[in-house]
UniProtKB/TrEMBL annotation:
<keyword id="KW-0963">Cytoplasm</keyword>
<dbReference type="InterPro" id="IPR006195">
    <property type="entry name" value="aa-tRNA-synth_II"/>
</dbReference>
<dbReference type="InterPro" id="IPR045864">
    <property type="entry name" value="aa-tRNA-synth_II/BPL/LPL"/>
</dbReference>
<keyword id="KW-0648">Protein biosynthesis</keyword>
<protein>
    <recommendedName>
        <fullName>Asparagine--tRNA ligase</fullName>
        <ecNumber>6.1.1.22</ecNumber>
    </recommendedName>
</protein>
<dbReference type="GO" id="GO:0006421">
    <property type="term" value="P:asparaginyl-tRNA aminoacylation"/>
</dbReference>
<dbReference type="InterPro" id="IPR012340">
    <property type="entry name" value="NA-bd_OB-fold"/>
</dbReference>
<dbReference type="InterPro" id="IPR002312">
    <property type="entry name" value="Asp/Asn-tRNA-synth_IIb"/>
</dbReference>
<keyword id="KW-0436">Ligase</keyword>
<dbReference type="InterPro" id="IPR004364">
    <property type="entry name" value="Aa-tRNA-synt_II"/>
</dbReference>
<dbReference type="GO" id="GO:0005737">
    <property type="term" value="C:cytoplasm"/>
</dbReference>
<dbReference type="Pfam" id="PF01336">
    <property type="entry name" value="tRNA_anti-codon"/>
</dbReference>
<dbReference type="GO" id="GO:0004816">
    <property type="term" value="F:asparagine-tRNA ligase activity"/>
</dbReference>
<comment type="similarity">
    <text>Belongs to the class-II aminoacyl-tRNA synthetase family.</text>
</comment>
<dbReference type="GO" id="GO:0016740">
    <property type="term" value="F:transferase activity"/>
</dbReference>
<dbReference type="GO" id="GO:0003676">
    <property type="term" value="F:nucleic acid binding"/>
</dbReference>
<dbReference type="InterPro" id="IPR004522">
    <property type="entry name" value="Asn-tRNA-ligase"/>
</dbReference>
């Protein structure tokens, strides 16, 4: 019976064949232990000299790391194994013998591993992170499909930018300028006016010359927009969605979280509702914590976000930022002209902002005024302005950064491990 490592629980005390690679091995005079991987998981193969012919045992002793093979054997329960099972090998058929595989079980530097990212993905740790990424993606589609959202795909090439062009990649679109999208939000607002509740899930690009552990040049965002939703209603969707993601990973990725050594007790606390703090009170809190230099009107950096998050045991919303700090499209606070109806969701444990969202301006004259104040090209944004001219309604939305969310849930230090092939300030290879 041909099967996969993920399915071995169905074949206890039965003989199966698995197509696999050798992740690692060790052997003594009478027994060889093969760490096998097949993409679905990892399992230990045990080759006992007295129970196989000499040719099979010699193959087990000599086979090299990352060689590929078909391995046949009996599935046995093994409570010592994280998987719960092991393979008692009876036969091996080598498909391809790998020679001088560059990533050995010893420690390697980050740059070396990044140069070999195409191979580093095979490691147990990276496998675990990618499986958690997949679960976050699966749970995202499940959440929005269950809650009446329609997926809409905004363009990646755009003629304008929702938050200015200073951090955008410019390219030629035949004889005119175009940009790689930094957000699909404006297009999602148009989609919400047609379909009510929508979400996008796609790549975005920021030409920020940043080297922090929170930044990527190319990353993926989930961007819902909701017609007839207030800022308050949007916050409830955000906390329900993030809670759903975390609980889904806890339920379906126990093995992977264990591989990463993640403290799941902290994740178990992530259930809606989330605490909220105004920007005004956040400034006061930072002053109490010794950040004397930050003043009202300043944006928060990573140390500030971390200090605020340390006061809470769940993700925390920072609400009502100063108008001057935020993009042109955000709805003013009804009682204050100096702040807008917006929120950033700050993850615990120093992972920073994972969501930015707001209620959007739906008044035509105010939108026109804000666009003029931001010196936006009227011709490039005319289509967007028309959204507040023809049947405008109150509406709200947000964007969640996939890789930051994965880094936080996984407990990994840097977002570069949360995406298969990261694009960083000085890295376009492989």
């Amino acid at each position: 019976m041909k099967t996969t490592i993920a399915e071995v629980h169905k074949y206890v005390d039965q003989e199966v064949t698995i197509g696999a690679w050798i992740a690692n091995k060790r052997s003594s005079g009478k027994i060889a232990f093969l760490q096998l991987r097949d993409g679905t998981g990892f399992i230990q193969g045990v080759v006992v000299k007295a129970e196989v012919n000499e040719e099979v045992f010699q193959k087990a002793k000599s086979i090299t790391q990352e060689s590929s093979l078909y391995v046949t054997g009996m599935i046995k329960v093994d409570e010592r194994s994280p998987l719960g099972y092991e393979l008692l090998v009876t036969n091996m058929e080598v498909i391809h013998e790998a020679v001088d595989y560059p990533i050995t079980p010893k420690n390697h530097g980050t740059e070396f591993l990044m140069d070999n990212r195409h191979l580093w993905l095979r490691s147990k740790r990276q496998h675990a992170v990618m499986k958690i990424r997949n679960e976050v993606i699966r749970a995202t589609y499940e959440y929005y499909n269950q809650n009446g959202f329609t997926k809409v795909d905004p363009p990646i090439l755009t003629g304008s930018a929702p938050e200015g062009t200073t951090e955008l990649f410019n390219t030629k679109y035949f004889d005119e300028d175009a940009y790689l999208s930094q957000s699909g939000q404006l297009y999602m607002e148009a989609a919400a006016m047609a379909l009510g509740k929508v979400f996008s899930f796609g790549p975005t690009f920021r030409a920020e010359k940043s080297k922090t552990r929170r930044h990527l040049i190319e990353f993926w965002m989930i961007e819902p927009e909701m017609a007839f939703y207030t800022h308050e209603e949007s916050l409830k969707v955000q906390e329900e969605y993030v809670s759903y993601l975390v609980q889904s990973v806890l339920k379906n990725c126990k093995l992977e979280l264990g591989v990463l050594g993640r403290d799941t007790s902290k994740l178990e606390q992530v259930q809606a509702p989330f605490p909220r703090i105004t920007y005004d009170d956040a400034i006061k809190l930072l002053h109490e914590k010794g950040f004397d230099d930050i003043q009202w009107g300043d944006d928060f950096g990573a140390p500030h976000e971390t200090a605020i998050a340390e006061s809470f045991d769940k993700p925390v919303f920072i609400i009502h930022y100063p108008t001057a700090l935020k993009p042109f499209y955000m709805q003013p606070h009804p009682e204050r002209e100096d702040v807008v109806l917006c929120a950033d969701l700050i993850a615990p444990e120093g992972y920073g902002e994972i969501i930015g969202g707001s209620e959007r301006i739906h008044d035509y004259e105010l939108m026109k005024q804000r666009m003029e104040e931001h010196d936006l090209d009227p011709a490039a944004y005319d289509w967007y302005l028309q959204l507040s001219k023809y049947g405008s309604v109150p509406h709200s939305g947000f964007g969640l950064g996939l890789e930051r969310t994965i880094a936080w849930i996984s407990g990994i230090e840097h977002v570069r491990e949360a995406i298969p092939f990261p694009r960083l300030l000085n890295r376009l290879y492989p």
